[in-house]
Structures are given as structure tokens and as C-alpha cells.
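Comment on both lines for my students:
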Amino acid sequence: MLTSLRGVRAVFQQRSIAPTTILKHAAYGFRMASKTPGESVDELNEEMSHFFGAASDPEFSPFSESNGGVQAQDVALPSVASRTSESSQLPDVNPTPLTFTPILSHVDSKGHASMVNVAQKLDTERVAIASARVLLGAEAFQQVVSNQIKKGDVLAVARIAGVQAAKHTPLLIPLCHNILIRGVYVDLTLDAAHYAVDVRARVVTVGPTGVEMEALTAASTAALTIYDMCKAVSKGIRITQIQLEHKSGGKSGNFDREPSPTGE
């Protein structure tokens, strides 16, 4: 209210209004303080018209709603509900998810090959299954089925080769640990529709590290043995789809390969 009186006093001084008039309107200012907000606004509009002249539009008032003004009794802060509603309409901003980049465990801080120290890791049961496919062709496949390959029983020799390879994996793969293998199982299945032999190797251990490499080595070596025993019949034999199918146990959790949509 004091600010309003000072503003009115400044206007009076600019218009050279008599001191008695100033005193009169100073008293008016104190009178305004005892009125309700609505009465004060109406009386202030009348005083504005008295000093500045009536507006050309009788409906005009600097405090009227039609001219962008506000009535004192209508001033209200937005409710908590309305603010919540407005904030809920804001677009959702999803923070960029943190990504984890796996680190090569067989490389040290200088980039040199290094064997992982597993001394602090607990012994747990670990299983790995790997597979491979040998595409023999029609002639070689028929001789394998009829056991006519000159070197002997292809499937029996390949199965033994897979078991031996799993046990010798640390000698073939430089950074593999020499662990105690509890079981190696190599299965060979004939696929007459594609003239192929499907190899499946399963390795089991209880130890501080996995046996994925042992399973892959077993499947690969069994496939190579089939090639070696049949190469005299056909040089077009192909070894394909050497891959890990399953692993369980260990810190990295379980893995199961999803079936390929092409069946390969």
C-alpha cells in the first residue's frame, strides 16, 4: 500500500496537484486498506477516471478481465492436482542406459596375452556342449553308412578322437587351464537328407573355470577325423557350423544358442 501511495504522489506532483488534494488522497489510501479486495479495485478505478479522465470505452478498466487485468478476488494459485496433470503431459525422457563392455580376460593392462589367475574362484559344476557338421557328399556318405571306408569305422574312430582332444585342450590352446575333466561324451548322427554327419560333444567338470574350449575342441577334432578318414573318397568334404550350443555354471551364467531360422 505504501508503494501505491508513493506512485499516486508522484503522479500528483507531475500534474501540479494542490497539496490539499494530495492529503485528501493520502487519506483515501489509508481508507482503501480497510476495504475488501473487490471494493478497493472498484474505488481505485473511480479514482483513475477522476485524475486521468474517463476512458472512451466505459467498460474499460486496467483491472478488468476483458482487458487482460485480473480481479483481486479471482487471483488463485494453481492447485497441486493441476500442476501434477500438466507435468504428466510432458514427454517422457528416458535416460541413456548404461552399457557394459566385456573386457578380454586373456589380455593384461599392456595388451599382452596372459593366462587368467583362477585361484580365488570357487569350484562349481560346469557343463559345455559344442557341435559341428561334416558335409560328406553322396558317395562318401554311402561308404560311411555301409562301413566301407578303407581306414576303418569312421564313427568309432571320430568318437575316440573327440574324447582324446578334450583332454588335451590345454596343450593345443595356449591359455587354457589344465583342469580335471569329469566326463566327455561325443555323439555322431547321420543325416541322410544332406549326406552329413552331425557331431555333438558334451564336457562336464567341477572346477574354477568353464569347459567351453574343451567341448569345441572335441567337436572340431571329431569332425577333422571324419574328414581324414574319408578324404580318399572325396576332396569336396566340408566342415561347417562349429559352435557352442550350451554352457552352464560360472560367473557369466548360462547360455543356450537359439535355433537358426534357416535351420543351419
